[in-house]
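In practice, a research group might receive sequence data for several interacting partners and want a quick structural hypothesis before committing to experiments. The following worked case mirrors that situation: the sequences arrive first, and a predicted assembly follows.
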Amino acid sequence: MDMLLTEDQLSLAETVRDYLAGTHGPEILRRLDADGNRDPAIWQGLVDMGLTGLLVPEAHGGLGMGLVDAALLATECGRACLAEPLVDTAFVGVPWLLAQGKTEQLADIAAGRVTLPLPHAINPWVADGEGAPLQSVDPLRNLFASANDNADPYLLDLGALMSAAQLVGLADAMLHQAVEYGKIRTQFGQPIGAFQAIKHQLASCAVAIEFAKPVVWQAAQALQDERASAAVHVSHAKVAATDAAMLTAETAIQVHGAMGYTYEVDLHFWMKRCWALAGAWGTRAFHLKRVDEAVLGGTLPIGPEHTFA
Amino acid sequence: MHLAYTPEQQAFRAEVRAWMETHVPKEPLVTLECREGYDQHVEWERTLASGNWGMVTWPEAYGGRGLDLIEWLIFEEEYFRAGGPNRANQNGIFLLGPTIMEFGTEEQKKRFLTPMAKGEVIWAQAWSEPGAGSDMAAISSKAVRDGDHYVITGQKTWSSRAAFADWGFGMFRTDPESKRHKGLTFILFDLNTPGITRRPIRQLHGDTGFAELFFDEVRVPVENCLAGEGEGWNVAMATAGFERGLMLRSPGRFQATAKRLVELYRKHEAEASPAAREAVLQAWMAAQAYAYNTYAVAAKIMAGGKIGAEASLNKIFWSELDRAMHRTAMQLLGAQAELKRFDDGSVNQWLEGYIFSLSGPIYAGSNEVQRNITAERLLGLPRVGAG
Ligand SMILES: Cc1cc2nc3c(=O)[nH]c(=O)nc-3n(C[C@H](O)[C@H](O)[C@H](O)COP(=O)(O)OP(=O)(O)OC[C@H]3O[C@@H](n4cnc5c(N)ncnc54)[C@H](O)[C@@H]3O)c2cc1C
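A structural hypothesis for the assembly, expressed as tokens:
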């Protein structure tokens, strides 16, 4: 029993964090927003880091890593509000293909030549796919109408897990932006971040985020280990991450005052991604129902001795 | 990350479970907050010690079993699974013990830890004063050096179990010229030393949960000082870290409450609101989240890491979770919630638990203070009043 994130995992996440912080800052989001949403150069950078091949087995030219590693990196993608479809293709699509024994496309995916649109019955759209375009509130999401009857439960779990992982990264980033703003904006002769009303709201966000993260990691490991209860843990992760991110989004805009209500301030990119992912791959109600069936329905053993049931 | 127990860990769990099943009292003990209940709980501490379960993580030389934090978590899970009573010595074993382990001399470890683990000496924490609650640096009780003794004069308050306990650990001002955090010293004292008067305080439920302590020229040997004179603040911060961080409230406690809440909900499902249903699910989710986080923190500590100001996040989370769970139970109980005993004669544990849960956000440093610490030390926001 060891719930430790290894040095390797943490340093990989840090490398990706630093890379995205250096190459995918708010000015890039603005440029993409103004001009086409996707940029082959950004995609190539991700490919060069090996991220498209993260979950592709080594035999197919990838790094052969696991879902916990992918979840940690999906969190970094959320933090950077990454627009390219890396999470969908590489962290959701690849394990789904692998589960079906489909390996033909893996080498191309790892090499960045192919992206995978992932239509699913749970979503009324498909992201980065084809068809009649739909407009998302998130200017950097490319959505298309999709009536799809693929209801594959594993694909849904992967999609929900990686959405949850991105949501905690988005939440982290919004908290950071609000904290930084709280340090520089002065009113009544002091930085607003010195007011307890501001501090305490931000501290509550920190609590929610702190206790959502291990739920996401645990769910990733449960799915990786193919635990029978994995779906419940994924749903738990989606609810916890959504709640933490929505709380942080609403708090962050409040802390920014009217500035937060502008297009000018960066916050809205993160907030909109948060709104989008909150409902993607299963609504809060959908996931709460799965927890309900397990916990109140009695299919999952509960109590202190069943922490990792 | 590897989320499966080893065969040794499973065997250990089975061992704890078997012992608890035969030893945990079948009837709940009388509340710890009165003489009768206190005595029952102390007897339970001694029963635990007879099985060598007093404090499993401590070295064998000090009355422990030398186990690691994962085994401690397993122990706690089984303890709460079995419905084990509250620990009369919690402020000793969970707060002072680890502090002595870190700051005590070899002689102090030998002298204090084993009797603590064995439940022979029950400890009370004596930090708060009438003028020093959240603002602990305002402590004014004095300890004046006189040869190889300190002479203590002053007043402490809200000291849990001090009405009945054997020893206390307190913070006193040893440097009369000092201000705030400086000049404080951490001193251990026998509560029966001449000059100490204990005045029990009736808590809102009517029982005696804590006491005021009056010190009138109380002579305490210098060797009872922990770490150096004037080092009190640093020592106390370490103790507070244990209190808010890993030890005082292990996840099993809340997972057990969440499970009981699920059972309560099933009984009242017909008349329960959808909001109560969601609150029950939220209880399970939050208790689980707390458990995962604790396992992650334990793993980090075992790998050589430390807990810092994150302990404040922990304290906020468990205390608000506990209150939310009990509030939900009170809602589910409806018109029965106010009954101290149900019509079958059983004690309304939810009511007792709800009342106690209201103190969680106050003791161990109020949640407002924890939010200040989180904002200033973890998030880096400017201090209160900064210009
Ligand atoms: C059940 C129980 C058991 C206890 N057991 C012990 C014990 O064994 N030993 C011991 O030494 N003490 C004990 N205490 C005391 C406890 O540590 C104090 O109650 C606590 O530190 C708060 O101090 P206070 O009660 O004086 O409240 P105050 O400090 O007067 O606070 C009152 C309110 O003001 C808020 N407040 C104060 N300062 C700030 C600030 N800077 N920013 C924002 N809000 C602020 C508080 O959060 C609180 O809401 C116990 C308390 C309880 C309820």
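Before designing any experiment, note the following. The longest strand of chain A covers residues 125-127. Residues 7-114 of chain A form a domain with the Butyryl-Coa Dehydrogenase, subunit A; domain 1 fold (CATH 1.10.540.10).
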